[in-house]
Amino acid sequence: MAMSRLSVTITAPIVLISVLAIGLTVFLNVGKLDRTLAELEESRLRYTVNALRQNLETGLDLGLPVRSLGNAQAAIDFEASQDPDIVSIVVRDEAGQPVFHTSRPAADGRGADADPDSIKVGATLSNNLGAEVGAIELRYSRRGHDEFIAGISAHLLLAALVATAVSILLTLVVTRQWVRRIGRTLGSIEHALDDNAPAVEKPDRHAAALAEEVKHSAGKAMDELDRARRAVGGAP
């Protein structure tokens, strides 16, 4: 489908604005989803850490030191087994030394050092006197989060490409029809003003009427000008 220079001039800005608007919409929606999901994940992880803290502080309230909490290893292993994206859970004593910790097989590739971008959530351990006697540290991999966002981004990008293609197609069709109508209107005006002009296939009646009126007014003006010239030429 050949396009005239006028069609390109009209279509290009519309297409550019459509592409920018759709692209900006996708970018903002993905960013908002990413932030919302990250906030939900952090809230869930804090709930897990607080649940572990309450469990361990039951033993601390009895006067036991962190190293003597017999249920600590089983508790953190159970929580780690519930979510494969938990990289590690570490229970530290008052000096900050790890006392209990979870570990994953090396083949899993999810060791704490293998995922530097993991989310870290922690809480302090206190006894019944309010003294801090240790801490819990949970590291969570962002791999699942990033894969989910990437999948959503791919689907939104595909939808954006389809929307852009449809927008461009509709713009081309509408612009082509509009330019053709302008061409018919100009052709009708040209035909009405010039008797030697080629006939228009589908003349525009409104344009033809306007051209006839312009032609009539121009004729009257020429007649008035001719009479004024003769009057000036015949004056003594």
TrEMBL record:
Taxonomy of the source species: Bacteria, Pseudomonadati, Pseudomonadota, Betaproteobacteria, Burkholderiales
Keywords annotated in UniProt: Membrane, Transmembrane, Transmembrane helix
Transmembrane segment boundaries: 148-174
Source organism per UniProt: Pseudoduganella namucuonensis
Protein's recorded name: HAMP domain-containing protein
